[in-house]
Amino acid sequence: MAARVRLKMRRGTGVSSFAVLLSVCAVLVPASGMFEHRHCDHQHPRAHEIIHGVHIEPVHEVKKRSISQPVRILLSYDESVFRLDDEKLDLINNTILPEAVHFWERALMVRETKNTIRLNRKCESSQVFVKDHHTHCIDTCRPVTMCGEVRVPEDHLDVCRTCNATGHNCGIAEGSKAGPGIDGADFVFYVSAMQTERCHKGLTVAYAAHCQQEAALDRPIAGHANLCPGSISTKPQELETLLSTVKHEILHALGFSVSLYAFYRDENGEPRTPRRSDTGKPPLNEKLQTHQWSENTIKTVVRPRWQVHGGYVERTMQMIVTPRVRAEVQAHFNCPELEGAELEDQGEDGTALTHWEKRVFENEAMTGTHTQNPVYSRITLALMEDTGWYSANYSMAQELGWGKNLGCNFAMKSCKEWISTKSSPLSGKSIHPFCNKVKQDPLQTECTDDRSSVALCNLVKHSQPLPKKYQNFDSIPHVRAGEEQYYGGSVSLADYCPYIQEFTWRARNIVVRGSHCLYEENNPHPDKNFALEKYGPHSRCFDHTNDMWEERTCKQARQWQHWGSGCYLYKCEVGRLHIIVNNYTYTCYHAGQEIIIRIMQNGWLHKGALICPPCRDICQAEFKARNEWCKPGDERPLSTTYHKDYLHCSSADNFNLSISMFIILILPLVVR
Ligand SMILES: *[C@@H]1O[C@H](CO)[C@@H](O)[C@H](O)[C@H]1NC(C)=O
Ligand SMILES: *[C@@H]1O[C@H](CO)[C@@H](O)[C@H](O)[C@H]1NC(C)=O
Ligand SMILES: *[C@@H]1O[C@H](CO)[C@@H](O)[C@H](O)[C@H]1NC(C)=O
Ligand SMILES: *[C@@H]1O[C@H](CO)[C@@H](O)[C@H](O)[C@H]1NC(C)=O
Ligand SMILES: CC(=O)N[C@H]1CO[C@H](CO)[C@@H](O)[C@@H]1O
User: N or C: which end of the chain has fewer CB within 10 A?
Assistant: First the structure.
């Protein structure tokens, strides 16, 4: 899966004919280049690569067990993991993997595995015989059994069983011994850290898949994950992303995979997809090289009138329609007609069909690309329940804000139709959660809905007209009529529907900092902190007014070409929100209140303004926990004074000031 989105940018240097009087500001400017995305690349294992029918316990015993054992995942490291440098090894072994595994161990339960797991050996041919519940290879077993890129240790393997080519003389191959096997676990996860070809492709961070399924209910019992050493970052602000990526990959191995849909079972443990009488397995899909699921698991849904720029097209989509998933998406969007949860239709075979549709589920962690704030929602847990192998602990589900209660118009229609309907003169409503502000010079940032990050509308101009079905605008503010078809969100998997997104500042292709408020690493350099921002665990994003921020000394003034929002400390006290800028506290009395900031810092007077959000947006939860609440909005009491600094300049300064009092225009955005 993916890493954080980036904006390409570079250092611009503002110099002009008046430069003698002005200090040169170097500012990091995101260019109007593309947001970058890395798609999750879950190349589903092909049918012949998977070993089915690993016998652990008889089916009648397994079936009657309740699904109440928190899933126990055993991690088994390949030696490549120990070749990682110390810092990365420590991060992977002591933080990322234990946390990711622990998350699923609390979130999912299985039927307890009471017997020892001994994995099957791989056969030379894809044809096998099953005798007395055991799989037999023809003539010989392969000397080495792989699970993905990892060699399964001999200790975990069963004996080699063989028959001859006509299915006679079946038995244990001479000299073959069973290993001690795996006790007290329900799933074994082989972890490697090899810089493979797939790592280079699309800058993949990690990938995973299952490799063996047990015989009774086809539950996956072994899988592998490869973490790409070159893409592992130990930077604190990238940990959350890495952790979410590893959790995402584990889930592909546990059940969310094209290779497993056909094996899903209902609540009675019966196959959702009918089995062939000869093989006992679902039919094969030659094209996907995997087993074909039935319409009661994934259904093809046709939307004949899908509105796009200048008309309609027909769209066909694949939806998970199993009962719990269907109930969860209907409840989430508040749309009782919704057929199911739409699957991604774009990306290569590692992305399509094996993730939730990005347009519909934006920051759900099981979408095909990471953009921001990934959450594992009830919908994903419901899917895991509908596999028939797990029950879910819904108290582990994270809140998915995207699309919540937006109804069938949101869940069943194009974003074009949503945007057009909402913004029509008759309606005049906000087109939220989509946006239509083209990223341009000067760069005006916004805040994400949850105010955890400074963000931008990811609407950009593409070099080619977008395919008709992704043309989402009839008109766009400040875009010449006729050019709309070049404009779309930067996230292709979201069907180019534009939305507000966090980003990273980059200089010469190196990430300088992110825009997420909660990470101290994102603090701007003190010399460049024109809007006196403060990033850290107690910060949130607040909007600036429409005026740009300005810095002054007696001799110089400079204005910055990017503004709009910033991260600031806050506190919730005595029923009000207080914003803290450079140790000065500003109390918000009502939503929309403009707070003028004038603060001397490092010899510069910083001037700007912040807008108070509604108290409940930021303080509600915190107050509730303390049995307090937000006081109703009120005009600020006449007695309140906010801190204000002034410049004290001599007359000589003033003379010079009159010359230098102009705006440095920082270089226009660099287009690439
Ligand atoms: C990996 O983690 C395990 C369990 O926490 C610990 O016992 C082991 O020493 C760690 N190995 C390394 C190389 O850090
Ligand atoms: C369910 O999740 C909660 C935390 O959200 C946790 O405290 C609890 O132990 C979990 N239950 C099980 C059975 O793991
Ligand atoms: C398999 O074994 C049976 C019984 O020993 C024998 O009749 C048959 O010819 C063997 N088949 C092959 C292909 O060796
Ligand atoms: C804020 O106050 C603290 C403690 O009084 C001080 O250490 C810090 O430098 C101050 N910060 C600013 C930006 O003035
Ligand atoms: C503070 C400062 O730089 N003052 C200068 C303003 O400009 C006059 C001449 O134009 C200089 O003499 C001052 O030194």
Answer: C
> Which amino acid belongs to residue 203?
L
Q: Comparing C-alpha atoms, which of 435, 453, 541, 553 is closest to residue 494?
A: 435
* Cis peptide upstream of residue 442 (ω within 30 degrees of 0): yes
Does residue 234 have its Cβ closer than 6 Å to ligand 4? no
Res. 656: pLDDT tops 60: no
Please report which ligand is nearest the Cα atom of 170: 3
User: Is 249 one of the annotated active-site residues of the chain?
Assistant: yes
Residue 611 DSSP SS3: strand
Q: Please state the pTM of the whole predicted model.
A: 0.85
Residue for token digits 């063989």?
Answer: 162
- Reading the block at residue 376, the tokens are 């594992």
Q: Quote the ligand 5 centre to 558 CA distance (angstroms).
A: 19
Q: Residue 380 contacts by C-beta under 8 Å, 6 or more apart in sequence?
A: 251, 256, 356, 364, 365, 366, 397
CA gap 245, 233 in Å, rounded = 12
Place of tokens 């490697």: 192
What is the Cα–Cα distance from 327 to 335, expressed in whole angstroms?
Answer: 10
Which residues share a beta bridge with 210?
A: 223
Span 526-557, pLDDT tens digits = 888 989 999 999 999 999 998 889 888 887 88
Rg (CA), the chain: 29
Terminal CA-CA length for the chain = 26
Residue 650, number of CB atoms within 10 A of its CB: 9
pLDDT in tens, 286-338: 999 999 999 999 999 999 999 999 999 999 999 999 999 999 999 999 999 99
Q: What is the dihedral of CA 40, 46, 49, 54, to 10 degrees?
A: 90
Taking CA atoms only, the protein residue closest to ligand 4 atom 12 is 582
Ligand 1, atom 10: nearest CA belongs to which residue? 93
Give me the catalytic one of 214, 249, 364, 446.
Answer: 249
Alpha carbon dihedral 161, 167, 169, 173, in 10-degree steps, equals -20
In this structure, are residues 139 and 127 in contact, taking their beta carbons and an 8 Å threshold?
no
Between CA 367 and CA 42 the distance in angstroms is 11
Measured by CA distance, the residue closest to atom 8 of ligand 4 is 583
- Between CA 234 and CA 4 the distance in angstroms is 14
419 and 436 Cβ atoms separated by less than 8 Å:
yes
Region of 150 (left: φ > 0; alpha: ψ -120 to 50; beta: rest) is: beta
For 275-288, give the DSSP string: PPTTTSSPPEETTT
Place of tokens 């004074």: 641
Atom of ligand 2 lying closest to residue 396 CA:
5
Which tokens in the block code for residue 429? 């409503």
Distance between CA atoms of 119 and 218, rounded to whole angstroms?
13
